[in-house]
């Protein structure tokens, strides 16, 4: 019988031999433009800090004020002693901003997605998810007692075919606002209409859209004039902090408070963090200049990258993937860029489908055109090598 140790060793070795071993690197971030690794300074084209708010002094000062007022930890679950005035204030602010009756805070977007699906999905229900939905959504669906079916990426016709079959329970349609690996946007209006015609619910994870798109950065759903029954927003991308929230109606919120195990049995986010997030949301609402600068940076990069020999995905978001194809080629290209002072991450299977290894380039509002010029020059130089 194989021991735990031997099984783990074999799994790690297989990952290593396939050239897909994941490794962590100690980094230091001076701001959204720059990062330091082993004493070397790099232009940062890998982070999700789309507006550069992680180093905004208004938010930093708010966190410090929150720590002075509330301490540095919640001290327990929100169902015990961990629900403070800062948490309540943030939930009310989110609900009002995004036009929902209620908002519930979670420690991460992964936890929020897992909590909602596992609390809602029953044995007679079905979950219809976009094929490229985030791992947290698909994993929760697989672990739930509901039947999981996946529709072709961003193809309403594919969803419609799945919806034609009858089912004894309820239907939950799951998608993202902006997809994290391709950078494209879901056709939310079409998906919502099909879902409602089938008397189902729509759940949208807008981790990469909130703060960046829509009026005052309200996100993909607001931009497309769609109000899903369940909206997940996260605070670790454009918001610049961490954590997440579920936006929903009164009854859904009360149900999740009773049955969402990730909410009930986890220590709440620090109240100082909730206090800082209230400041971050104000910065988002007033951040039209940052969103405009980001849009200009995206357009500038796409014009410059149009002649590269790699497939540039059709994305107008901050996520600009260059499809390389071969895993080792993608890794080599990332190393060449780092040698020229640009930090770009190579994404390989199983995160993306086999044969679609890529450079996941992310732009932010703090990048200057000179930074993008260096990246483009590095890409063209690497191409010639």
Task: Tell me what you see in this structure.
- The protein has 385 residues and is of the alpha/beta class.
- It folds into 2 domains: 128 residues, Aspartate Aminotransferase, domain 1, CATH 3.90.1150; 229 residues, 3-Layer(aba) Sandwich (Aspartate Aminotransferase, domain 2), CATH 3.40.640.10.
- It contains 14 helices and 15 strands.
- A 7-stranded mixed sheet has the order 4-10-9-8-7-5-6, sandwiched between helices. Strands 1-2-3-13 form a 4-stranded mixed sheet. The chain has a 4-stranded antiparallel sheet with strand order 11-12-15-14, with helices on one face.
- Helix 4 packs parallel to helix 5.
- The longest helix has 18 residues.
- The protein is globular, with a radius of gyration of 21 Å.
- It starts with a helix and ends with a helix.
